[in-house]
Design brief:
alpha+beta, Helix Hairpins, BirA Bifunctional Protein, domain 2, 13 helices, about 20% strand
Length: about 425
Protein backbone atom coordinates (compact mmCIF):
# COMPACT_ATOMS: atom_id res chain seq x y z
CA UNK A 1 0.00 0.00 0.00
CA UNK A 2 1.30 3.44 -0.85
CA UNK A 3 1.86 6.02 1.85
CA UNK A 4 -1.05 8.48 1.62
CA UNK A 5 1.51 11.28 2.02
CA UNK A 6 3.16 10.23 -1.25
CA UNK A 7 -0.19 10.50 -3.04
CA UNK A 8 -0.96 13.79 -1.31
CA UNK A 9 2.42 15.38 -2.05
CA UNK A 10 3.08 13.84 -5.49
CA UNK A 11 -0.26 13.06 -7.16
CA UNK A 12 1.16 13.44 -10.67
CA UNK A 13 3.97 10.98 -9.88
CA UNK A 14 1.41 8.43 -8.67
CA UNK A 15 -0.79 8.97 -11.73
CA UNK A 16 2.21 8.46 -13.99
CA UNK A 17 3.30 5.31 -12.12
CA UNK A 18 -0.13 3.69 -12.26
CA UNK A 19 -0.44 4.59 -15.95
CA UNK A 20 2.94 2.99 -16.66
CA UNK A 21 1.65 -0.18 -14.99
CA UNK A 22 -1.54 -0.07 -17.07
CA UNK A 23 -3.62 -0.03 -13.87
CA UNK A 24 -6.60 2.26 -13.40
CA UNK A 25 -6.53 4.10 -10.07
CA UNK A 26 -8.68 7.13 -9.24
CA UNK A 27 -6.04 9.26 -7.53
CA UNK A 28 -8.29 12.34 -7.45
CA UNK A 29 -11.02 10.40 -5.64
CA UNK A 30 -8.47 9.20 -3.08
CA UNK A 31 -7.29 12.78 -2.53
CA UNK A 32 -10.90 13.90 -2.07
CA UNK A 33 -11.44 11.20 0.56
CA UNK A 34 -8.21 12.20 2.28
CA UNK A 35 -9.30 15.85 2.37
CA UNK A 36 -12.72 14.88 3.70
CA UNK A 37 -11.15 12.68 6.37
CA UNK A 38 -8.75 15.37 7.52
CA UNK A 39 -11.43 18.07 7.65
CA UNK A 40 -13.70 15.72 9.63
CA UNK A 41 -10.93 14.97 12.13
CA UNK A 42 -10.06 18.67 12.39
CA UNK A 43 -13.67 19.57 13.16
CA UNK A 44 -13.85 16.76 15.74
CA UNK A 45 -10.67 18.04 17.41
CA UNK A 46 -12.07 21.59 17.51
CA UNK A 47 -15.24 20.33 19.16
CA UNK A 48 -13.27 18.27 21.68
CA UNK A 49 -11.31 21.38 22.60
CA UNK A 50 -14.55 23.34 22.96
CA UNK A 51 -16.07 20.56 25.07
CA UNK A 52 -13.06 20.58 27.38
CA UNK A 53 -13.34 24.34 27.80
CA UNK A 54 -17.08 24.19 28.50
CA UNK A 55 -16.66 21.26 30.88
CA UNK A 56 -14.21 23.34 32.87
CA UNK A 57 -16.76 26.19 32.95
CA UNK A 58 -19.44 23.77 34.15
CA UNK A 59 -17.12 22.75 36.96
CA UNK A 60 -16.59 26.36 38.00
CA UNK A 61 -20.33 27.08 37.98
CA UNK A 62 -21.11 24.02 40.03
CA UNK A 63 -18.36 24.89 42.48
CA UNK A 64 -19.90 28.35 42.82
CA UNK A 65 -23.32 26.69 43.20
CA UNK A 66 -24.61 28.46 40.11
CA UNK A 67 -26.89 27.02 37.42
CA UNK A 68 -24.96 25.13 34.72
CA UNK A 69 -27.86 23.42 32.93
CA UNK A 70 -27.43 25.33 29.65
CA UNK A 71 -23.71 24.60 29.51
CA UNK A 72 -24.32 20.94 30.38
CA UNK A 73 -26.79 20.65 27.52
CA UNK A 74 -24.28 22.25 25.15
CA UNK A 75 -21.58 19.81 26.33
CA UNK A 76 -24.00 16.93 25.70
CA UNK A 77 -24.82 18.22 22.21
CA UNK A 78 -21.13 18.59 21.40
CA UNK A 79 -20.55 15.01 22.58
CA UNK A 80 -23.22 13.76 20.19
CA UNK A 81 -21.70 15.78 17.36
CA UNK A 82 -18.23 14.40 18.12
CA UNK A 83 -19.62 10.86 18.13
CA UNK A 84 -21.15 11.43 14.71
CA UNK A 85 -17.92 12.89 13.35
CA UNK A 86 -15.88 9.98 14.74
CA UNK A 87 -18.23 7.51 13.07
CA UNK A 88 -18.00 9.48 9.84
CA UNK A 89 -14.18 9.51 10.05
CA UNK A 90 -14.14 5.75 10.64
CA UNK A 91 -16.33 5.19 7.57
CA UNK A 92 -14.11 7.45 5.46
CA UNK A 93 -11.03 5.65 6.81
CA UNK A 94 -12.43 2.29 5.71
CA UNK A 95 -13.32 3.62 2.25
CA UNK A 96 -9.93 5.30 1.93
CA UNK A 97 -8.06 2.13 2.90
CA UNK A 98 -10.08 0.09 0.42
CA UNK A 99 -9.24 2.61 -2.30
CA UNK A 100 -5.54 2.58 -1.37
CA UNK A 101 -5.50 -1.22 -1.60
CA UNK A 102 -6.42 -0.89 -5.28
CA UNK A 103 -3.46 1.38 -6.08
CA UNK A 104 -0.40 -0.58 -7.27
CA UNK A 105 3.16 -0.06 -6.11
CA UNK A 106 5.04 2.44 -8.25
CA UNK A 107 7.70 1.15 -10.66
CA UNK A 108 11.31 1.96 -9.84
CA UNK A 109 12.78 4.69 -12.03
CA UNK A 110 15.08 2.14 -13.70
CA UNK A 111 12.22 -0.08 -14.90
CA UNK A 112 11.94 -0.01 -18.71
CA UNK A 113 8.69 1.43 -20.01
CA UNK A 114 6.49 -0.89 -22.02
CA UNK A 115 2.96 -2.05 -22.61
CA UNK A 116 3.34 -5.76 -21.96
CA UNK A 117 5.38 -8.94 -22.22
CA UNK A 118 6.67 -8.08 -25.68
CA UNK A 119 8.50 -5.05 -24.21
CA UNK A 120 10.40 -6.96 -21.52
CA UNK A 121 14.18 -6.69 -21.85
CA UNK A 122 16.52 -9.68 -22.04
CA UNK A 123 19.48 -8.85 -19.77
CA UNK A 124 21.74 -11.87 -20.30
CA UNK A 125 21.92 -15.58 -21.10
CA UNK A 126 23.71 -18.36 -19.25
CA UNK A 127 24.95 -21.60 -20.80
CA UNK A 128 24.20 -23.01 -24.21
CA UNK A 129 21.05 -24.56 -25.61
CA UNK A 130 21.43 -28.36 -25.64
CA UNK A 131 21.87 -29.95 -29.05
CA UNK A 132 20.49 -33.30 -30.21
CA UNK A 133 21.07 -35.69 -33.11
CA UNK A 134 17.34 -36.41 -33.02
CA UNK A 135 14.20 -34.30 -32.72
CA UNK A 136 13.70 -33.59 -29.00
CA UNK A 137 10.31 -34.62 -27.67
CA UNK A 138 8.06 -32.51 -25.43
CA UNK A 139 7.77 -33.48 -21.77
CA UNK A 140 4.17 -34.67 -22.01
CA UNK A 141 5.17 -37.36 -24.48
CA UNK A 142 8.15 -38.39 -22.35
CA UNK A 143 6.16 -38.30 -19.13
CA UNK A 144 3.23 -40.31 -20.44
CA UNK A 145 5.36 -42.89 -22.23
CA UNK A 146 7.57 -43.50 -19.19
CA UNK A 147 4.73 -43.25 -16.66
CA UNK A 148 6.42 -40.30 -14.91
CA UNK A 149 3.44 -37.99 -15.31
CA UNK A 150 -0.14 -39.31 -15.13
CA UNK A 151 -2.47 -36.74 -16.64
CA UNK A 152 -5.31 -39.28 -16.71
CA UNK A 153 -5.11 -40.03 -12.99
CA UNK A 154 -4.89 -36.35 -12.06
CA UNK A 155 -8.02 -35.63 -14.08
CA UNK A 156 -9.79 -38.66 -12.63
CA UNK A 157 -9.12 -37.53 -9.06
CA UNK A 158 -9.43 -33.74 -9.32
CA UNK A 159 -10.48 -32.73 -12.84
CA UNK A 160 -8.58 -30.99 -15.62
CA UNK A 161 -5.47 -29.03 -14.74
CA UNK A 162 -4.22 -31.49 -12.12
CA UNK A 163 -1.50 -34.13 -12.47
CA UNK A 164 0.04 -37.09 -10.66
CA UNK A 165 3.79 -37.73 -10.58
CA UNK A 166 4.63 -41.42 -10.32
CA UNK A 167 7.69 -43.62 -9.96
CA UNK A 168 10.90 -41.95 -11.08
CA UNK A 169 8.90 -38.79 -11.84
CA UNK A 170 7.82 -38.48 -8.21
CA UNK A 171 11.36 -39.20 -7.03
CA UNK A 172 12.81 -36.60 -9.41
CA UNK A 173 10.33 -34.02 -8.14
CA UNK A 174 11.31 -34.81 -4.54
CA UNK A 175 14.99 -34.68 -5.46
CA UNK A 176 14.63 -31.25 -7.04
CA UNK A 177 12.81 -29.91 -3.98
CA UNK A 178 15.42 -31.25 -1.56
CA UNK A 179 18.26 -30.00 -3.75
CA UNK A 180 16.82 -26.48 -3.88
CA UNK A 181 16.13 -26.31 -0.15
CA UNK A 182 19.58 -27.63 0.72
CA UNK A 183 21.25 -25.08 -1.55
CA UNK A 184 19.34 -22.14 -0.10
CA UNK A 185 19.85 -23.26 3.50
CA UNK A 186 23.42 -24.59 3.38
CA UNK A 187 24.96 -22.35 0.73
CA UNK A 188 22.88 -19.17 0.85
CA UNK A 189 22.16 -19.05 4.58
CA UNK A 190 18.36 -19.09 4.53
CA UNK A 191 16.25 -20.32 7.43
CA UNK A 192 13.78 -22.99 6.36
CA UNK A 193 10.17 -22.69 7.51
CA UNK A 194 7.09 -24.82 6.96
CA UNK A 195 3.81 -22.95 6.92
CA UNK A 196 0.06 -23.61 6.64
CA UNK A 197 -1.36 -23.92 3.14
CA UNK A 198 -4.55 -22.09 4.15
CA UNK A 199 -4.32 -18.39 5.01
CA UNK A 200 -6.64 -15.61 6.14
CA UNK A 201 -8.06 -12.79 4.07
CA UNK A 202 -5.77 -10.38 5.94
CA UNK A 203 -2.71 -12.42 4.93
CA UNK A 204 -3.75 -12.41 1.25
CA UNK A 205 -4.39 -8.67 1.46
CA UNK A 206 -1.03 -8.09 3.13
CA UNK A 207 1.00 -9.41 0.21
CA UNK A 208 -1.25 -7.82 -2.42
CA UNK A 209 -3.18 -10.81 -3.77
CA UNK A 210 -6.41 -9.24 -2.50
CA UNK A 211 -8.55 -7.49 -3.40
CA UNK A 212 -7.37 -7.41 -7.03
CA UNK A 213 -6.84 -11.15 -7.66
CA UNK A 214 -9.53 -12.76 -5.51
CA UNK A 215 -11.18 -14.37 -8.54
CA UNK A 216 -7.98 -16.35 -9.22
CA UNK A 217 -7.78 -17.84 -5.71
CA UNK A 218 -9.31 -20.99 -4.23
CA UNK A 219 -11.43 -19.99 -1.23
CA UNK A 220 -12.97 -22.01 1.59
CA UNK A 221 -16.11 -19.92 1.93
CA UNK A 222 -17.33 -21.24 5.30
CA UNK A 223 -14.11 -20.15 7.04
CA UNK A 224 -13.10 -17.37 4.62
CA UNK A 225 -9.68 -18.99 4.20
CA UNK A 226 -7.68 -19.19 0.98
CA UNK A 227 -5.44 -21.90 -0.43
CA UNK A 228 -2.08 -20.23 -0.97
CA UNK A 229 -1.19 -19.20 -4.54
CA UNK A 230 2.46 -19.01 -3.45
CA UNK A 231 4.50 -19.45 -0.25
CA UNK A 232 5.14 -15.71 -0.47
CA UNK A 233 1.81 -15.19 1.30
CA UNK A 234 2.33 -17.16 4.54
CA UNK A 235 6.08 -16.57 4.77
CA UNK A 236 5.99 -12.79 4.29
CA UNK A 237 3.09 -12.53 6.76
CA UNK A 238 4.96 -14.37 9.54
CA UNK A 239 6.03 -11.05 11.07
CA UNK A 240 2.97 -8.93 10.27
CA UNK A 241 1.91 -6.47 12.99
CA UNK A 242 5.40 -6.72 14.54
CA UNK A 243 8.22 -4.30 15.23
CA UNK A 244 11.45 -6.15 14.45
CA UNK A 245 14.89 -5.55 15.89
CA UNK A 246 17.01 -3.89 13.21
CA UNK A 247 19.98 -5.98 14.30
CA UNK A 248 18.09 -9.10 13.18
CA UNK A 249 17.74 -7.88 9.59
CA UNK A 250 17.89 -9.10 6.94
CA UNK A 251 15.57 -12.05 7.52
CA UNK A 252 16.18 -14.72 4.87
CA UNK A 253 13.45 -17.37 4.81
CA UNK A 254 12.89 -20.29 2.44
CA UNK A 255 9.85 -22.53 2.17
CA UNK A 256 8.56 -25.35 -0.01
CA UNK A 257 4.80 -25.55 -0.53
CA UNK A 258 2.23 -26.59 -3.06
CA UNK A 259 0.63 -23.59 -4.77
CA UNK A 260 -2.99 -23.38 -5.88
CA UNK A 261 -4.26 -21.16 -8.69
CA UNK A 262 -7.58 -21.13 -10.49
CA UNK A 263 -6.13 -19.56 -13.63
CA UNK A 264 -7.02 -21.85 -16.51
CA UNK A 265 -4.40 -22.79 -19.04
CA UNK A 266 -5.41 -21.96 -22.57
CA UNK A 267 -5.59 -24.80 -25.04
CA UNK A 268 -2.75 -25.41 -27.45
CA UNK A 269 0.89 -26.40 -27.42
CA UNK A 270 2.00 -23.29 -25.52
CA UNK A 271 0.21 -24.36 -22.32
CA UNK A 272 0.12 -28.11 -22.89
CA UNK A 273 1.45 -30.60 -20.38
CA UNK A 274 2.46 -29.27 -16.96
CA UNK A 275 3.26 -25.72 -18.08
CA UNK A 276 0.19 -24.22 -16.40
CA UNK A 277 -1.69 -26.31 -13.85
CA UNK A 278 -3.94 -25.58 -10.87
CA UNK A 279 -1.67 -27.17 -8.24
CA UNK A 280 2.12 -27.11 -8.42
CA UNK A 281 5.10 -27.11 -6.07
CA UNK A 282 7.49 -24.24 -5.57
CA UNK A 283 10.44 -23.36 -3.38
CA UNK A 284 10.17 -19.72 -2.36
CA UNK A 285 12.77 -17.33 -0.97
CA UNK A 286 11.63 -14.31 1.09
CA UNK A 287 13.76 -11.43 2.36
CA UNK A 288 12.82 -8.81 4.96
CA UNK A 289 15.41 -6.02 4.88
CA UNK A 290 16.28 -2.44 5.78
CA UNK A 291 14.98 0.05 3.17
CA UNK A 292 18.42 1.21 2.07
CA UNK A 293 19.50 -2.38 1.34
CA UNK A 294 16.57 -3.64 -0.71
CA UNK A 295 17.88 -3.12 -4.25
CA UNK A 296 21.26 -4.62 -3.36
CA UNK A 297 19.36 -7.56 -1.85
CA UNK A 298 17.37 -7.91 -5.09
CA UNK A 299 20.63 -8.53 -6.96
CA UNK A 300 21.63 -11.13 -4.35
CA UNK A 301 18.22 -12.82 -4.54
CA UNK A 302 18.41 -13.04 -8.32
CA UNK A 303 21.86 -14.62 -8.21
CA UNK A 304 20.70 -17.17 -5.64
CA UNK A 305 17.88 -18.25 -7.95
CA UNK A 306 20.34 -18.41 -10.84
CA UNK A 307 22.65 -20.62 -8.76
CA UNK A 308 20.02 -23.38 -8.84
CA UNK A 309 19.74 -23.35 -12.63
CA UNK A 310 23.49 -23.21 -13.06
CA UNK A 311 24.01 -26.16 -10.71
CA UNK A 312 21.47 -28.13 -12.76
CA UNK A 313 23.28 -27.18 -15.98
CA UNK A 314 20.16 -25.65 -17.55
CA UNK A 315 20.40 -22.91 -20.17
CA UNK A 316 18.36 -19.83 -19.21
CA UNK A 317 18.00 -16.12 -19.72
CA UNK A 318 17.40 -13.22 -17.32
CA UNK A 319 14.58 -10.87 -18.31
CA UNK A 320 13.85 -7.47 -16.79
CA UNK A 321 10.11 -6.89 -16.65
CA UNK A 322 8.78 -3.68 -18.19
CA UNK A 323 6.33 -1.35 -16.45
CA UNK A 324 3.23 -2.69 -18.21
CA UNK A 325 4.02 -6.31 -17.29
CA UNK A 326 5.24 -5.59 -13.76
CA UNK A 327 3.43 -7.30 -10.89
CA UNK A 328 0.80 -5.27 -9.02
CA UNK A 329 2.82 -5.01 -5.78
CA UNK A 330 6.27 -4.99 -7.40
CA UNK A 331 8.62 -2.05 -7.75
CA UNK A 332 11.17 -3.94 -9.84
CA UNK A 333 11.19 -7.52 -11.15
CA UNK A 334 13.49 -9.91 -12.96
CA UNK A 335 12.32 -13.25 -14.37
CA UNK A 336 14.44 -16.32 -15.04
CA UNK A 337 13.33 -18.23 -18.12
CA UNK A 338 14.72 -21.72 -18.69
CA UNK A 339 15.03 -23.31 -22.13
CA UNK A 340 12.69 -26.21 -22.92
CA UNK A 341 14.01 -27.81 -26.16
CA UNK A 342 11.03 -30.14 -26.66
CA UNK A 343 8.67 -27.18 -26.59
CA UNK A 344 11.22 -24.99 -28.39
CA UNK A 345 10.65 -22.05 -26.06
CA UNK A 346 11.70 -20.39 -22.83
CA UNK A 347 9.63 -20.96 -19.69
CA UNK A 348 9.52 -18.73 -16.63
CA UNK A 349 10.76 -20.59 -13.53
CA UNK A 350 11.39 -17.65 -11.20
CA UNK A 351 10.30 -14.08 -10.58
CA UNK A 352 12.58 -12.10 -8.27
CA UNK A 353 10.95 -8.91 -7.03
CA UNK A 354 11.43 -5.95 -4.71
CA UNK A 355 8.19 -4.69 -3.14
CA UNK A 356 9.86 -1.83 -1.22
CA UNK A 357 7.57 -0.91 1.72
CA UNK A 358 4.35 -1.67 -0.20
CA UNK A 359 3.61 -5.02 1.47
CA UNK A 360 5.00 -3.88 4.82
CA UNK A 361 2.48 -1.03 5.02
CA UNK A 362 -0.38 -3.41 4.29
CA UNK A 363 0.92 -5.77 7.01
CA UNK A 364 2.14 -3.07 9.41
CA UNK A 365 5.57 -4.74 9.61
CA UNK A 366 8.21 -2.39 10.97
CA UNK A 367 11.64 -2.34 12.61
CA UNK A 368 13.69 -0.19 14.98
CA UNK A 369 17.28 0.72 14.16
CA UNK A 370 17.97 1.23 17.88
CA UNK A 371 16.09 0.45 21.08
CA UNK A 372 14.26 3.80 21.36
CA UNK A 373 14.25 4.74 17.68
CA UNK A 374 11.02 5.49 15.83
CA UNK A 375 9.70 2.37 14.03
CA UNK A 376 10.16 2.33 10.24
CA UNK A 377 8.60 0.11 7.61
CA UNK A 378 10.79 -2.72 6.34
CA UNK A 379 11.22 -3.60 2.67
CA UNK A 380 10.22 -7.07 1.47
CA UNK A 381 11.45 -9.16 -1.46
CA UNK A 382 10.77 -12.62 -2.77
CA UNK A 383 11.82 -14.94 -5.54
CA UNK A 384 11.06 -18.46 -6.69
CA UNK A 385 13.95 -20.74 -6.08
CA UNK A 386 12.48 -22.42 -8.20
CA UNK A 387 9.01 -23.30 -9.51
CA UNK A 388 8.99 -27.09 -9.90
CA UNK A 389 6.86 -28.01 -12.94
CA UNK A 390 8.79 -25.93 -15.43
CA UNK A 391 12.13 -26.91 -13.90
CA UNK A 392 10.99 -30.51 -14.30
CA UNK A 393 10.12 -29.76 -17.94
CA UNK A 394 13.61 -28.37 -18.57
CA UNK A 395 15.24 -31.44 -17.02
CA UNK A 396 13.08 -33.98 -18.87
CA UNK A 397 13.39 -32.23 -22.23
CA UNK A 398 16.96 -31.00 -21.88
CA UNK A 399 18.48 -34.26 -20.65
CA UNK A 400 16.49 -36.68 -22.85
CA UNK A 401 18.41 -39.31 -24.80
CA UNK A 402 17.71 -40.98 -28.15
CA UNK A 403 16.82 -44.28 -26.44
CA UNK A 404 14.08 -42.59 -24.38
CA UNK A 405 16.04 -42.44 -21.13
CA UNK A 406 16.70 -39.23 -19.18
CA UNK A 407 20.22 -38.40 -18.07
CA UNK A 408 20.13 -37.23 -14.45
CA UNK A 409 21.83 -33.86 -13.80
CA UNK A 410 25.02 -34.41 -11.86
CA UNK A 411 23.74 -32.36 -8.91
CA UNK A 412 20.83 -34.82 -8.44
CA UNK A 413 22.63 -38.13 -8.93
CA UNK A 414 23.38 -38.69 -5.27
CA UNK A 415 19.70 -38.41 -4.44
CA UNK A 416 18.43 -40.34 -7.45
CA UNK A 417 20.99 -43.12 -6.99
CA UNK A 418 21.75 -43.33 -10.71
CA UNK A 419 22.94 -41.24 -13.64
CA UNK A 420 19.90 -42.02 -15.80
CA UNK A 421 16.22 -42.88 -15.43
Amino acid sequence: MLDIRVIRDNPDLVKKGTALKRVEADVDAILALDTQRRSTLTRADELKSERNTLSAEVGKLLKARENADDLKERVRQIGEEIKGLDEKADAIDAELRQSLLCVPNLPHESVPEGAGEEDNRVVRHWGEKPTFDFTPRPHWEIGEERGFIRFDQGARVSGSGFIVYAGAGAKLQRGLINFMLDMHVDRHGYREVQTPFLVTRDAMTGTGQLPKFEDQAYRVSEDDLFLIPTAEVPVTNLNREEILNGADLPLNLVCHTPCFRREAGAAGRENRGITRIHQFDKVEMVKVVRPEESYEQLDILLQQAEDVLQALGLHYRVVEICSGDLGFSNSRQFDLEVWAPGMDRYLEVSSCSNFTDYQARRMNMRFRREAKAKPEFVHTLNGSGLALPRTMIAVLEGYQQADGSIRVPEALRGFMGSDAI
